[in-house]
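Aim 2, interim progress: modelling of the glutamic acid-bound target.
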Amino acid sequence: MTTPVRVRFAPSPTGYPHVGNIRTAMFNWLLARHSGGKLILRIEDTDVARKVEGAVKAIMEGLNWLGIDWDEGPDVGGDYGPYYQSERLELYKKAAERLIEQGDAYYCYCSPERLEEMRAGQVKRKEPPGYDRLCRDLTRDECARREAEGIKPVVRFKTPLEGQTGYNDVIWGNVVVNNSTLDDFVLLKSDGYPTYHLANVVDDHAMEISHVIRAEEWISSTPRHLLLYRALGFEPPRFVHHPMILGPDRAKLSKRHGAVSILDYRDMGYLPQTMLNFLALIGWSLDDKTEMMSKQELIDNFSLERIGKTGAIFNREKLDWMNGVYIRKLTADEFFDAVQPYLMDDLDAGKVLISDEEYVRAVLPLVQERARTLVEVVELTRFFFTEDLSYDSALLIGKNMDKAATFEALEAAQEDLGKLVVLQESATRETLPAFDADSLEGVLRPLAPELDLKTGQLFSVLRVAVTGRTAAPPLFDTMAVLGRERCMQRIAAALKRL
Ligand code: GLU
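Predicted structure of the complex, ligand included:
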């Protein structure tokens, strides 16, 4: 009989949601969704000193953003709760007591000062670090005497001194360690809180977890966990230790490589579908060529067996490329919906213009092909939404042109465009061109030779005048969207600057 898949994401709320952790959640979620199993969100908040206010909320926000949903957890409940470890302390205490009764654990009364001294000695003598087992064989009387002195003990696991502990990792195959290399690790701290090891094992058993999928950095903890499973008489789950995300220098991805919070990637304008696809391909692959995969394709094709052994590099250029591809795939409505919140957040934009949906919808197609992030969309289109362009008037001076020639060119353009405006006002819509890209081109292109200029020279002067920038979307389309009035105003303002 095969057991149903029950996997868990078990973050410690000690900070922002790191992309590495979120990717762990994603692998768990992909297996759950692929196999019709359950994903459990469990908050491992037993390290009181490192707890960070708001971390749980941020983790959930990151998961929600990517569309990673869970079946049981602190917010949605479930049959195996509570899902905060801090609300399960009784369970860990009971397990620790049971281990003491069985002779698999013991009280340790060593003071922090003594442990510090011990450690310093080990370093000096170049010995491997680890508790020297001073309290391992205390008698009941010796324990009672220390209790009477008011010393609050920790509970340590009585690690077997001989033999080996091993298991078969789905990714790493057989992993075996000599028990002599493991120390008597702490199970319960003196404040009654469990350590990660104890709480993790007690909960994975209690929550009937079938697969523990976590980052490679936990692989060295697993033999300790297995010893605990054995001592407690629990059947261990399958273990899957996936490789870590590495920075370009092959070191564990950290803040010094740039942004690492998943929410930063949202704020930088990456689409959730990009992020999901991109993170899945760090360390997992379908084959050696498929790059673009939708959420459903990832779910359909996911398998633990195709998680690689080696750490994979977080390649920002690939992320940008992929986001560009996803941006181009969006329908006009999807693109509008995706960009809207970023535009609204842009402090430099004119609020009236930003709220003009029709105008925004006319602007967006001009950049959809070129933008790699939604923030870039905001930057590329800002001039559309700013009433007063600020730019250095030196930018206006065309290549191989001087101030006078630039002035002359702008004035001529103003005059010709003025004709187009008048022409249009006096004509019926059907028979004469509106202020659109074609009519603009029809008026402006012939102007260059009249002024003894190359078209490029004239157009770049105009581009700066109407956008304030030397690079912008195609000039005539841009002018058409900006509209007659705004173009005329901007050209007039440019003339004044000169
Ligand atoms: N609380 C651990 C963490 O923050 C969980 C490790 C595990 O999955 O066992 O990553």
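Residues 10-12, 44, 200, 214, 218 surround glutamic acid (CB under 6 Å). Residues 403-426 form the longest helix (24 residues).
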